[in-house]
Amino acid sequence: MELRTRGDVGGRPHSAGLGLVVTQAPVAARAFSIYEHRARTHHFDLRLMRGDSVALWAVASAMPGPGDVAQLAIRIDELPFTALGTLDAQSDRTRWDHGPMTVRSWREGEAAVVTLHGASGGGLGGMRTVSLLHVGSVGEDDDHWTIVALDTSS
After folding, report:
1. By C-alpha distance, which of 150, 151, 146, 149 is closest to 60?
2. What confidence score (pLDDT) does residue 79 get?
3. How many other C-beta atoms can be found within 10 angstroms of the C-beta atom of residue 78?
C-alpha cells in the first residue's frame, strides 16, 4: 500500500522532500484525542500522546478529511502527560474523538504521519491517516504547521 497526499503546500505534495518513510507496518502505537474548542476562535485541539508527553496542535476550523485541503495547525508547547486531565476538564472543550494512534513516521519539529483510530460514533468516523508538516514560525509564539488527510485507497 502506498500513501498519497491529496493536499498540497506551496505547489508540492504535503510530505514531499522530507525523507519520510511511510510504512504499512506500525512503527509505534500510542493514543490521541481531539477536542472541539470554542474559544476566542473556534478550532480543534489535536493531542498526540507519545511517551510521557502530549504533543498539541490547535487546528483551524476543521479536522481535514480525505480530499480536503491542508488546514493550518499551530503547535503548542508539549505538555507533561499528567496535565492532560486538567486540560480536558475545561468547560469550553468538548471531546470530539479519541482512540489509539499508530505512528507511521515522526521527525520531531519537522513532520509526522500518524493513523488515528477513532472511536465508534466519534467525529473522525473511523480511521484516518494524517500528515503534519512544519511550515515555519511567525514570531516567537506561533509555530505554524499544516495538517492534511492522506489518501490510503491505493
Report:
1. 146
2. 55
3. 16
